[in-house]
Amino acid sequence: MKSAIVNIHIPKTAGTALRRRVWQSLPEVHGRRAVIGIDQIIGYRTHEPERLGSIMDEGFGKLSRSFPQIVSGHYLYREIADHVAARREQLILVTSLRDPVDRFISDYLYNLSDRSTERDAFITQFPSFDAYLAAQGPRDKQYRYLRPARDATVLETIDHVKRNFDFVALTERLDADLDLFLTRLGLRPAPPFRLNEGPDRARFQELRDRHGDAIAEANSADLQLYEALSAVDWGDTPIDFVGSGVAAGTAAPVRPVLPEADARLLDELVAMGPWHHDIDLNPDVWTGLAAVSGAAGNETGAGRVSLTRPAAIFANQILPFFPDGMAGKSFLDCGCNAGGYCFAARDAGAERTFGFDVRQHWIDQARFVAARRKRNSDGMQFEVADLLALEAMDEMFDVTWFSGLLYHLPDPVRGLRIAADRTRDLLLVNTAVAATQDGPPERLSMELKFESRNNVMSGVHELAWLPSGPKVLQKILADLGFAETKLLFWLSSEAPGRTGPRGRLAIVAARSSGRLADPMTP
Predict the structure, then answer these.
(1) Is the pLDDT higher at 188 or at 97?
(2) Are the CB atoms for 292 and 254 separated by under 8 Å?
């Protein structure tokens, strides 16, 4: 029986929509998130096959035969082909394709937009569309992403995909294709979803009218691949998938069968709920189990508390800047909740971690985890404190984590300054924002909002502010003495059922210029 879907996400082929629709259609098991974003861990670095391979091996090694998941990322198929082949009986291999002319233009316009974190470098490299069209790098991306080997021809690639892939969706008929694919998996399809659709349709059509023939000629391998694979009937035969027949959003099984000691540990976790951080205590028990094992689940009087995996987020957003680990470093987490990021920093080698939160509930959880988890918790401290109390603290930290806090503060600039003044090297800000990357251009501002004082997932001040987007944060961070910043992501919220324009972003700031350069780039 197959338990994981591996998506080869070719840029600008609706791969994000594919990933999200599959994710929303998958059941939630034991509170675990069903999506593993490999590209968020390794970044868009196809020149790192060895690192990608080790990450895929580690990720595949954690896949459960009873837990349905989707693994997705901007990686070249040939760099993971051997890893997929070694577990082929467990994996479902998919990708999506798009008309090569449309994909080429969409890729160009995306890189010109404010949504691209590499926009300035792109414009320097390609000052005009003619320069982009003349370059070899942007051409035939679909063929280059799907080649089973570096020297594989187009015909060999087509044949390999036909024999080894379980499904290929087309962007032009994405909703129908995904409905078919999800039905084959035995899942109830989630509603259609679109992200990063280009708003400049007039410019898109102008480029197509003027350069369509030249683009097709420059992407002849993509055109041949697209025409051949779009003609394939991928069939409607059911796939023997572990998620089949289980409704999305349910937990199956409700409670795992555990040895007596672990069962008692789980009872304690349930009693301490709700949990927001999903943290491993040992190989068989993690805090997220409490979300589906108790009679009330992860509910509070103020509604359901979401689960997040701090270890995965930490690996995505900070560890790339510490390729040799964090040995000897110190780490500060402002508004630490159950301490998940402190534990991730400690596991990465940090010598000293300090986490504080204004709510006793979360600090009780952090101390519980520190006392009962299998891994080393030496050098870790958790305290109940308000951010303002940090002003009286003399200690400095190498890395400060400022996640999920900024948009709960009545004075976010002062709060950020307090954290910045105690940061030697890197400061990471992960926050909700007023606008999304696919909305209108950002107008630098703060948006007033009010929130409950009683909801454990809210602040305690009632009055709070949402930054407009990355530009306003970059201005503030520069004023706080950070020489450079790097936008890690800026997206609309992926929370099911979320409405409105609000999004979320993560931005890392460094005291020293050049600190945020890609450590893997020669």
Answers:
(1) 97
(2) yes
Q: Residue 137: is its pLDDT beyond 50?
A: yes
Check residue 506 and give its pLDDT.
92
Report residue 297 as tokens: 């689940």
Q: Please choose, from the candidates 406, 344, 398, 395, the residue with its C-alpha nearest in 3D space to the C-alpha of residue 369.
A: 344
CB 291 within 8 A of CB 269: no
96 within 8 A of 166, measured Cβ to Cβ: no
52 Cβ neighbours under 8 A, 6+ residues apart: 38, 42, 45, 46, 75, 79, 80
Question: Residues near 431 by Cβ (< 8 Å), separated by ≥ 6?
Answer: 402, 403, 404, 405, 406, 407, 467, 473, 504, 505, 506
Say how far apart CA 375 and CA 370 lie, in whole Å: 9
Specify the pTM: 0.61
Q: How far apart are CA 91 and CA 81, in angstroms?
A: 12
Helix, strand, coil percentages (3-state) for the chain, rounded to 5, are 40, 20, 40
Average pLDDT over residues 338-354: 97
Q: Residue range 164-182: average pLDDT?
A: 93
- Mean local confidence (pLDDT), 364-380: 96
The pLDDT value recorded for residue 193 is 53
- Please count the CA atoms within 13 angstroms of the CA of 159 that sit on its side-chain side: 6
pLDDT at 292 (0 to 100)? 60
Distance CA 413, CA 430 (A): 14
Cα(475)–Cα(433) distance, rounded to whole angstroms?
15
Q: What DSSP state is assigned to residue 379?
A: T
Contact, 427 vs 405, CB < 8 A?
no
